[in-house]
Each structure stands twice: as C-alpha cells, then as structure tokens.
Amino acid sequence: MIACVTFETTKVTDPILFYEINKAHIIHYVRDPTSQSASVYLEFYDRVKEIIEEKSPRHVDIVEHIEKVSDFSLMLKTVLGIIQSEHDAASASGEKCEIYVNVSSGGSEYAAAAAIASMMVPGTIPFSVGTKEYTVDTEGVRKNYFIDGKPVGLTKSTYDPRQLPSYSIQIPEERLVRGLRILDQRNNSRQSVTSGKMIAALKDAEVWHRDTETSDPNRKSTQRQTEAVYYQRDFIGKWLDKGWIEKDDLNSRYVLTDEGRNIINTFYVE
To answer: In degrees rounded to 5, what are phi and psi of residue 105?
Structure first.
C-alpha cells in the first residue's frame, strides 16, 4: 500500500490493517528537522509506525519516503515510481502483486497525484477512506476553527495559487461507450445480444460507422458476414482489450465488468 502522512493516523493505519498489507510505502515530509514544527509532523509519522507494528497481525515492511508532499509533480513522480518498481519486482519474481493506493491520506496535491498515478498502471487499486467519527466535537470545532466568532477552518492564510501541470488522459471513444451501454441495456432486459441484433441496435443508435449497406439482395449474406467481422473487431475486441467486458460462459454472452460499468456510468451520460 502507498499512503501519505501529514496530520492523520487512522486514515492510514486502518486500511493497512483491513487489507492485511505486508508492505507499506509511507510518504511524509519534514522541511527542517531541527525546527519545533517539524516534531509535530514526525510525531504523526512515528505514531503511524507504532500502530502498524502494534496491531498488524503480520509483519509489515515499512518503507519511508521523505518528499515534499505539497509538490504535485514530485508526488506524481514518487507514487508512479513506487507502483512501477513494485510491479517490476513482482514480474521478475513471478509473484502476484496487489498495490493499493490510499488517496484519502495526505494533502490535496498528494491525493490528486496518487489518483492519477494509480490509473496510469493497470491493476493498481486506488481507494478512499471516509470519516466515521471525528476527534473534535462541535464545541471543539468552534474553539479551534473559529476566529472572533466566525468560521475560518484549519487554514488561516494561503500562499498564492499554483497551477498544476496538465497531463493528457484520453477520454474513452464515444461510440465504444454508447455501444457498451446498449450491450448492458440489452443484457438487463434479457434481449438478444447476438451480432445481428447488436449491429441493428448500434445502427439505430447511430454509433455504427461502417458503410456496409447494400441494396443487392444477392449480397445480403455477404453483408451480414462482413458486419459480423467488423462488430467483433471494432466493438467486442476493443471492449475486451480495455477490460470493459468478459465472457459469461454460463449464458453464452458478454457482460460488463466493474470497470465497464464505471465507464458507462461516467462518460456520455444523457
């Protein structure tokens, strides 16, 4: 698991215990180890280590990464580097490796970078942790986060805004997403999803971009065969390659994976 420690402990340690992690990459930062404020950051990191060592039912190899957690580009480089090195090590040893990335711990720059990095390497598992109970009650919030009776929050003042560098992440092709939604709708309504039926549905939805129509009745059979080849290559093959569908052998049809369902629930939603 990869996580970042600033002013949280439970959001880091609970998932490590939940997933029974055997290796934890913990990112944290101390600008000046000799300053008084540095001891606060170190205490949080040290407490995280203590909790893991005390409560984990198995040995956890803790790898410390001291990096500036407020630097988005550095966080992207760091998290991506950890993910890739762990995948490479697993591939070299022939072992299965599950890498979890905690995007709830740490600051906003780390969280954004960690989420992007985890989506760049297939098989990586990003997750978030919701807060069930806070350490500060309502009166504590008023005492610590209000100034002169007005809500301010944890931050009293800020530095000037810094624009984040942009990275191109390809949005899924529209016709593939809309076609996938048609497949899912037909599966849910128990309609036929044979090549012929799906091709007709794709044409009706105007996501079939191949010019295969012929008015010659003697070539209708050839047209159907050609269209079936295109459907397998242009839709089924690409859905499989992207991990959006899988074969349900019991019912002899393709069904959406969790990733495929996330795709149709996110993109080109009417």
So the answer is: -90, 160
